[in-house]
Amino acid sequence: MRVLLISNPNSTSQNSALFREVLPVIRDVEGLQLLARFTHYPGHAQDMVRGMTREDFDVILVFGGDGTVNEVVNGLLGPADSANRPSPQEIPVLAVIPTGSANVFVRALGFPNTPVEAAHVLARMLERNTRRTVSLGVWNDRWFAVNAGFGLDADVLARVDRAREMGFSATPLRYLAVAFQAYQRARIRPPRISVRARSSAGETFAADDVPVMFTSNTNPWTFLGPLPVVTNPRNSFDQGLGLFGVSDLGGIDGLVGVLHLFGVDHRHWLNKVTDARTLHFEDAVAVDLVCPKPHRFQADGESEGTFTEVHLESEADALEVFAPVDPAPPMHRNIRRILRDLVRIN
């Protein structure tokens, strides 16, 4: 088995000590040949794997976060609107060892969030050749694996990125603080998003002047530290896209609806409040989002610029990944690990 490992050497979450712990775990897989390459600029991972087939490598192993996963997916599959898009069996299988800040994709697949633990799980998957096929999202002609959003969530991510560039860490509390600030600005000048969607069963959804509309390809859509944030409980890598929106940002109901998007109401105690303001649609295969003025758009946690119109689709069985066959987490929880992760929230 020929494996190409791709890593960003400038990532603050990676260091030589971590490599010394992780790489031997993967190299010990019988019959595995490992080659490591490092990225040197944004988009390099996409350029690196563009046009690769299984004749080049059997596996592309991403040692990074959701942004690097997004680059590799787009490099392997090419433009989503291409008539010559490769089948999942023609391109290398994707594997991930998480080192990002959220790691939504790999955690939703059922892997641990820590690199060493995830490496041990992945090694067993490689030995047993345990893989599955997942659906992916498409926005315009590009792919996304986790989520995409117009407006508020894109503004939050852009501002968190600016904070990180200034040397601040992207902690869950920082996300919540930035989300509240973005909410206050959006209340004054809310986006006016028109939404049109169609499900695989032919059902339709339409809404106008929506200030917040979010699209996810996974369940959960993100994590608040160790806690999953769920907007569309029925969503999965085996279905279409899940839509979650807030119809009105005014009053306490609007605030609670926005905070629900960012995981504050993890136990759903405020369902009666949020149900009055939130919009849900499941298993969407086509979605059109239109704004009268340009607004930020994000995909897989990366800002993609400003747009007035975005078309999204769900592509079933788009990519093969190494992952547990049953990604459902065990019923019991590791209390020590949760407490350890909670201490890291500062």
TrEMBL record:
Pfam families: DAGK_cat (PF00781). Its EC number is 2.7.1.-. The keyword Kinase applies. It comes from the Bacteria. GO terms for cellular component: plasma membrane. Residues 1-140 form the DAGKc domain. Signal peptide: none annotated. InterPro entries: ATP-NAD_kinase_N, Diacylglycerol_kinase_cat_dom, Lipid_Phosphate_FormReg, NAD/diacylglycerol_kinase_sf. One of its GO terms (molecular function) is ATP-dependent diacylglycerol kinase activity. Belongs to the diacylglycerol/lipid kinase family. This is Putative lipid kinase.
